[in-house]
Design a protein that fits this description.
The complex is a heterotrimer of chains A (about 375), B (about 200) and C (about 150). Chain B is an alpha/beta fold. Chain B is about 35% helix and about 10% strand. Chain B has a domain at about 35-160: 3-Layer(aba) Sandwich (Rossmann fold), CATH 3.40.50. Chain B contains six helices and four strands. Classes of the chains: A alpha+beta (about 375), B alpha/beta (about 200), C alpha/beta (about 150).
Chain lengths: ~375, ~200, ~150
């Protein structure tokens, strides 16, 4: 049987060289995709012409499952949404429930919530900076930042018994009060954090290779950032001064003094640097909280075991490590929600990827994805 | 047939005995001491897998460290929820691993579907529904020490395996229906047009 | 004057078109429109300074779907819910991608999970579920053999 070979004449560019587009599949199981994300990349040589993210490899149907669980039983489900930051995922959900049911949370519980959320923010940023560093090849940096993260995780283990999925913030307050000596441990941790962050800053952000890899890559203009609905450090790196903790202050944040860290150029370097500098601010907030916190109740009195809020709808949001995390709840008067929708910041930020990556090379694409900081549990829900 | 299989078959046909068992224990020991792992980390358990590999709970002292390429690995650690969309990718990666290979199902979601067992429409209830799993580690997520204990248990299992084909533990899938067919699903059409 | 009343008076000054559609539901400011006026109202809101589209979602209410859009404005320090309704048998409406680019992926998600078609969307296909999935899971009448129902104890 003769083999038919079709000869195709490829297109020619201006100089007369043949041009052909290569379609490359990156993921879903790939060390640089920060989880199960897949990108279909159209390349012209080494330059990205178009990138199509394909998500949904971790879509577990949490919103549908929530319709068959009581309000308290949904809290462990929210843990698994943004698994790098379970504390603030719990908190966003609990705020929406409290708004729906008209529950007032005692003051000590609010302080505890802020303390754990800021500790969680430090842990999440360390994870993000570490994995971005590993993407550029600085693997030992990943191990250094994970060491800082282990400090936070150990504190959480002493507080509520779990290292990763805490189920700590519940509707009406928090589930456990702090054990003895915990606040001293936290202050020791935040005291030691400053020098360690300085060292990380010098090691990674002061390095010429990092600067070469990250500066000028994936520049996001402030107008695009707002128009595409993105939030969090990804847009603060572009100079947009927007932080829900200060501009829509909730809980006890009005009593805290801290700065909002804002970048200048909007490239991957600024986004990553904003995350590092936010850790210093978080340490400040934690120290102020511990100084101001007084003894008291940690859970609202008289809350029914089976919470059945009146018919209504409520939306509430918090500033998570990735941006504005919101939960929209619709109640029909029974003990299970009629609809729960999670407004995921990582999902909205990831929509920027096709916009930012065009014109960059393939290694830069990996850096851009890392700087947008997706966590696929939250993107896919 | 691979060289090791031929040696094993040869030794067995000679009557087995002390030569086969000595060679078995040497091969089993050396395989167990350096199990390179493919970290199939999808969700929260991946964080604990990473923590287990890093400096506080060092995995390298057990000889195990994560290799991103399935062709270089012995054991696939499935850490996290497997969804219907991800299942073809996991099967394909399992098939890409060279023999002998083992699978550790880490975490409740990989063992049975975990917290997503009820009411989820897209979660595969347990990795053992489409892969032959050797060690199950419960926990949501399991502590890094549990994962290391799981690897040590796997090491015991590997040590007691024989290189002779007749004595090897059969690793089959007892599925009631036909195995997963690679129809034109999302993972196979990676190079196709997406418009 | 509460935030809601302040916003109401500002809207009365700035946009006589939007003012009659403005209402309050459960403590939040809501602008309820028919689906034929959706794009017009959205453009009016955008012109007023509501430049951030935060969330697009749908609620299955048996005979119809309620579409909920949450838009926020930094200059006016306000957020409103833009709500509209589509009947179940004829579930399609105009896409807002031309007004707010943030609607792109959010509308794809609503299409994926509810089956509501957005006319004029540049790339309307499934985003979270596999491309060959049959059915729209978040509808209340979704049946699937894969689902193991939780026993009805609390």
């Amino acid at each position: 049987m003769t083999l038919q070979i079709e000869s195709r004449t490829p297109a020619l560019d201006d100089a007369g060289h043949p041009v052909e587009e290569l379609v490359l599949n990156v993921g879903p199981s790939h060390p640089s995709t920060h989880g199960v994300g897949r990108m279909i990349v159209h390349l012209d040589g080494d330059v990205v012409v178009k990138v199509t993210p394909v998500i949904g490899y971790l879509h577990r149907g949490i919103e549908k499952m929530a319709e068959n669980r009581t309000y308290l039983q949904i809290v462990p489900l929210t843990d698994r949404l943004d698994y790098v930051g379970s504390m603030y995922a719990n908190w966003a959900y609990c705020r929406a429930v409290e708004r729906l049911a008209g529950i007032r949370v005692p003051e000590r519980a609010e302080y505890l919530r802020v303390i754990v959320c800021e500790l969680q923010r430090i842990a999440s940023h360390m994870m993000s900076i570490g994995s971005s560093a590993a993407d550029t090849g600085a693997f030992s940096m990943f191990i250094y930042t994970f060491d800082v993260r282990e400090g936070v995780v150990e504190l959480f283990e002493n507080l509520c018994g779990s290292r990763l999925t805490y189920n700590y913030v519940r509707p009406g307050g928090v589930s456990k009060d702090v054990p003895e000596g915990w606040t001293d441990d936290v202050l020791a941790f935040t005291g030691s954090l400053g020098p360690r962050l300085d060292e990380l800053d010098r090691l990674f952000f002061g390095n010429t290779i990092t600067r070469g890899r990250l500066k000028g890559v994936g520049v996001l203009s402030p107008e695009d950032a707002v128009a595409w609905g993105a939030s969090g450090p990804a847009v603060r790196g572009s100079g947009v001064n927007w932080d829900l903790r200060q501009h829509r202050a909730y809980s006890v944040y009005p009593r805290m003094e801290f700065d909002v860290v804002v970048g200048e150029r909007g490239d991957a370097y600024d986004r990553a640097r904003v995350r590092l500098l936010e850790c210093y601010e978080s340490a400040k907030i934690i120290e102020q909280c511990i100084a101001q916190m007084r003894a008291g109740a940690i859970m609202t009195e008289g809350l029914p075991r089976l919470l059945a809020p009146p018919v209504g709808e409520a939306y509430d949001h918090i500033e998570s490590a990735r941006g504005s995390l919101g939960v929209y709840l619709v109640s029909d008067g029974s003990e299970r929600p009629y609809r729960m929708k999670v407004r995921s910041p990582a999902f909205c930020n990831l929509a920027l990827l096709p916009l930012l990556a065009v014109g960059h090379t393939l290694p830069d694409l990996v850096v851009i994805l890392g700087s947008l900081d997706p966590v696929f549990g939250e993107v896919d829900r | 047939m691979a060289l090791v299989d031929r040696i094993g078959a040869g030794l067995e046909s000679l009557g087995g005995g002390i030569i086969l068992t000595t060679v078995d224990s040497l091969v089993g020991w050396s395989r167990g001491q350096s199990l390179w792992a493919f970290p199939m980390g999808t969700a929260c358990c991946a964080m604990e897998l990473i923590a287990a590999s890093f400096n506080k709970f060092d995995f390298d002292r057990l000889g195990t460290f994560p290799r991103p390429d399935p062709r270089h690995t012995d054991v696939m650690i499935i850490a996290g929820t497997i969804t219907e969309k991800m299942k073809p990718a996991v099967s394909r990666l399992y098939e890409q691993m060279p023999d002998p290979k083992w699978v550790i199902a880490m975490g409740n979601c990989a063992v049975s579907g975990g917290i997503f067992y009820y009411d989820s429409y897209s979660v595969v209830r347990g990795a053992d529904s489409f892969l032959p799993v050797d060690v199950f580690i419960a926990g949501c997520p399991p502590r890094p020490e549990s994962l290391q204990d799981g690897v040590l248990q796997l090491r015991e299992l590997v040590r007691t395996e024989s290189i002779a084909p007749g004595k090897r533990r059969e690793r089959t899938l007892n599925l009631p229906q036909a195995p997963v067919a690679h129809t034109g699903s999302t993972i196979a059409e990676g190079s196709g047009e997406v418009e | 004057m509460t935030g809601f009343e302040q916003l109401q008076t500002r809207l009365a000054e700035l946009s006589p078109k939007l003012y009659p559609l403005f209402s309050e539901e459960f403590g939040d400011a809501v602008i309820g429109v028919e689906r034929s006026q959706l794009i017009e109202t959205a453009e009016e809101l955008r012109a007023l300074g509501f430049d951030r589209l935060g969330m697009v979602t749908a609620i299955d209410r048996q005979e119809w779907f309620t579409l909920v859009y949450r838009v926020a404005s930094r200059s006016l320090s306000a957020a409103v819910f833009l709500k509209t309704r589509v009947p179940r048998e004829d579930a399609h409406l105009d896409s807002l991608c031309g007004v707010w680019p943030a609607a792109n992926w959010q509308e794809r998600e609503v299409f994926d999970l509810f089956g509501i078609v957005f006319d004029g969307h540049p790339d309307l296909r499934r985003i979270l579920l596999p491309e060959d999935w049959v059915g729209y899971p978040l509808r209340k009448d979704y049946e699937d053999d894969r689902i193991i129902r939780r026993p009805d104890y609390i």
